[in-house]
Amino acid sequence: MDASTVDVAVWNIEADGGRNGERRDLALDILAEYNSDVVLEQEAKHSRERGGLLLHATEMRLKLRGFLAAPNPYADADIATAVYIRPEMFQVAEARPRAKPWWLHPCHVVARLDNCPEPLNSISFHMCYFDANQRLTEASWLAMQAGPGMVTLAAGDTNSYPRNPERLALPDWNKVTDRAHMVHRTYLDADGHRRSDTRPDAALTDAGYLDLARYAADHLGQPDALAATAGQTRSDQGGPQRIDRPYGAGGIAAALETVEVVDIDDIREVSDHSLLILRFNRARLERLLAQAESVLCA
After folding, report:
1. If DSSP codes are grouped into helix, strand and coil, which group holds residue 16?
2. Alpha-carbon distance 96 to 182, whole Å?
């Protein structure tokens, strides 16, 4: 932790590191090393069990306060998302339960940074892996959270692709041997052709969100921010792709300093997704949250 920055970790920890913590301790060791002020976790699959045992163990290990998404009544899809925040830095105003229209429920925490008059919205999400139309619905819901003057950070596993071309080519679906995956990650256009699903990214950017990794690459001279976050070992599914993405609204990009994609052996031992680390200039973020009050009141 650097007092001059607000550091955010975004990580889809595969199956929560295991029900009995098979990989959880290593995951927490990695997160503790980065000592982030906010952690947005996806696949918090077992954190609700046994009275929140894994949730509370994570709070103790990282010295953060944790929140889980609303329970899902469908047992086969009760895979929570989670938000952890540093309690001495943030004052929680609201932890909003979110359910419909999501397949897996997002976790949305509204908290004030220090004494800033307006809060920061932090949303951890995991879009549906098997249905492109469901993902588009979920993206449309996220779009509503970026109202005028609302400073928002929404990040997670989109299970889809960026709209604009990047150095990572989209999969050649004729060469993808996992045909179920091909169906999951594509949609049928008006002519009945399969297209790579870039529609969630399009919906979010059209609604005013910025892809913060893309912003770091285009405006902060950080091309490695666009590195693959998943699929590195799945040639049968089209290979490495950038499906874990952080989005910002309400001007938060002005406070962004760096976006780092961490892909090392320890990370791969824990999960099939890379770890994202975002650093925001604290003074600029505080000024932004002070200015947001005048926008909301206008």
Report:
1. helix
2. 34
Report the distance separating Cα 79 and Cα 164, nearest Å.
30
| pLDDT mean values, one per 10 residues, the chain (298 residues) | 89 90 92 97 91 93 96 77 97 83 93 94 96 97 82 98 95 96 96 96 96 98 98 91 97 98 96 97 96 54
| Helix segments in 63-172, DSSP class H | 132-143
Strand order in the sheet with 65-68: 65-68, 80-85, 38-44, 5-12, 275-281, 256-262
* 291 three-class SS: helix
Q: What is the pLDDT of residue 49?
A: 87
At residue 75, the pLDDT reads 58
Its pTM surpasses 0.85:
yes
- Of 222, 234, 220, 224, nearest to 262 by C-alpha is 224
Q: 36 near 9, Cβ under 8 Å?
A: yes
Residue 168 backbone class (left: φ over 0; alpha: ψ -120 to 50; beta: rest): beta
Using CB atoms within 10 Å of the CB of residue 242, give its burial: 0 to 12 exposed, 13 to 18 middle, 19+ buried: buried
For residues 275-292, one letter each, b for 16 or more C-beta atoms within 10 angstroms of the residue's C-beta and e for the rest, the string is: bbbbbbbbebbbebbebb
How far is CA 265 from its chain centroid? 21
**Of residues 285, 282, 295, 290, the one with CA closest to residue 1:** 282
- Inter-residue contact 241 to 175 (CB < 8 Å): no
Q: What is the DSSP letter of 241?
A: B
Closest CA to 70 of 44, 93, 89, 90: 44
Contacts of 14 (CB under 8 A, 6+ apart): 23, 43, 270, 271, 272, 273
Residues 6 or more apart whose CB falls under 8 angstroms from that of 147 comprise none
Q: Which helix (H) or strand (E) holds 191?
A: none
Q: Indicate the helix (H) or strand (E) that contains 156.
A: strand 151-157
